[in-house]
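Worked Example 4.2. Consider the chain below.
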Amino acid sequence: MIQSNYIKIFSTAAYHTFFDNGKCNCLHFIPNHKTDSILKKYGFRMTPVSNGFDLYSNTKSSLSDLLDYISKNTEQDYFEFDIKCSNPNFILFTALPINWIGAVNYSSQDPKNVNNNGKITLNQSLENKPASTHFGHLKIYFEDILKEQNTSDSVLFEINFTARATQWQYYFINKNAVQLNNPSITEKENIQFDGPQTVTIQTGESALLFTSNKTYITLSEKPKYKFDLISSSASTNQTNTKPKVIIKGLPVPDVSRIGIIENNDQNQVASPMYIYL
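Applying the procedure from the previous section yields the following structure tokens:
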């Protein structure tokens, strides 16, 4: 009977504040050609989990001896993984430079990494690379694995992303001549909308525009904010009259559609939404 002696040597996990459960399930870690050969030749097992992977070793010798042997025989002292992304809108809803094209790189030897008892939060390094075929790359060096194993029971390399915050823009196109008396958008959690401003949209139609102005609202997988379009039902000489709800529960941003606000040195991002009345 063959006895298996697999021991987990480290884990990698990706998290993102955009997703409701915090786990980033759309990134996939694929060993590059040389690392794949090492994993197969020297008895490693890579087990995918929902937001990363676990790497196991099956060796009768010590891990230190094994990694030293691999380093001397392959002239490589790290595992390297290509990162692929299966969500085409990832860069749009993630707080990354809006017009940036390149690769997101991580290394266990980055001096900006943060170590908390064996949980190493990897620093994000952006590489400008117009012809990049992968979303990013991850390097885990042998010496960092061994160093962490000496001080903690489990080693976790963690990758974190933050959801993008945008200016929300509601464009109301009143094609059916809906009566609007002093229209406004309800305030929630101190988020106020400016407007209305009469503008002409790309179709040539006239629209009423409301924006969250300098309040940038964080995008999320599941809506955290619901606003209503209301209209005053009172005449100018009446008071304490309850506003009329024109639309209850306005749309939330489509993360595949963003706009650029070019009003200062630093481009800012907007989420335009078009509603026909």
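The first strand starts at residue 6 and ends at 16. The mean pLDDT is 91. Compare this with Example 4.1 before moving on.
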